[in-house]
Amino acid sequence: MRHFVAVVAASAFAGSALAGFSGGVSSFTSLNDFYKIGPSIGKWPSGWVSYVVSEGFSGFSNSNSVTKLQGGAGWSQWVLTASQGTMSVESGVAIANEVGAGLSFDLGPALGSSGSGLHGFGGDFGFRDANGKRVAGTVELTLSTGDALVHEISPMNSFAGFWSLDAGVTITGMTLRPLGTAGENYRATVDNLYFGFAGVPAPGALALLGMAGAAASGKRRR
Amino acid sequence: MNRSIFAIATSAAIVASADAAIVAFTSFGDWEGASANAELALFGAPVDSVIHTENFNGGPTATAPSLTGGSSWNAWSATATSGVQTNGNALLTSSAGNALLLSFLNAGGEPKLLAVGGNFNLYNTYGQKMDGRIWVRLANGSSIVRNFTANDNFVGFWSDDLAAPITSMRIQATGSGSSAFLVGVDNLYLATVPAPGAVALLGAAALVGWNRRRA
Hints:
Chain A is of the alpha+beta class. Chain A is 16% helix and 42% strand. Chain B has one domain.
């Protein structure tokens, strides 16, 4: 699992002009925006940090038939299953074995009243045709909050994700449903997962951030 | 300046969703056909929508505190901190860095406004379209952040709850350098489905017709 840190110390928005438009869930179709914009527009309390970690399935051996994949820990724990049948793992890509099957992600637990935890979730999604070729198709992604995104994904534009911008609302799951042609002919895939944390940093995380800051400062001074 | 399309409802029974939600779309075709899409089943059974389009052609080019249009369920008002205007075919903020607020004025009436969408763009101060990132938000909190280009500039939303209309939408540039741009909408699409009572009447009429044919 790779870690990328984008620290946001406080709420980015305030003021009466935005009354009624704060919080909620925002959809993203660009990984760059998911990393940079998502954490910065959350309505986080002062003292919170936010960052993104990713899972590339590189630790999973190739297999033709698995009933579930799981990984992560604590706020970033995840379990992946297909809505029908089993899945395969091919070179770091998880693939539903049945045409039209959806993918279900059970995600990190809803954490305590502080709201710290999983606020962002996304992935590189796709489809394979009968020959195993990557093809474009439409997905419906539905988050545990009820918010949904219908989006056409392609081999060149495979990312989709969400950030819950409310401090008190964490993400506990997401489903992917192939629609239209994709649902009738293709097998759904997921290549990488991205987990966005927002909350009160754990002491260990603070030390890590401090070391990263010191290292960066040292580099700038040399 | 606008056109309305009415399509006869294809189903006699639409229902409010038990878990009301907003669905975002990045394709006009998917948005346009959403209520009639049996797979999506926004309202239980498929039902055709009524879509009203504002293209802003011939709109006023002078800055005004607000612009209004539409009527009844598709009535709208546009405002921005330093005013709004059109360039003859798109609605724009008059000053860079402003957000464009669209308010929908018939929230309490029937039928309710259940879907909005648009072709959104950034403009430089010379009025030229620019690629860039826009954050489109509904007042209920649902939003989407996208990088918009001249050829890929649609975003839309549907409420799947007949009792939860869309009341307003805010469009603003976001990310690095965003304060240098005007935001605008080329086409604004507003949609509803027949009110439950009207749908029930259509269903009853269809049933009567069917019984007469059988008699």
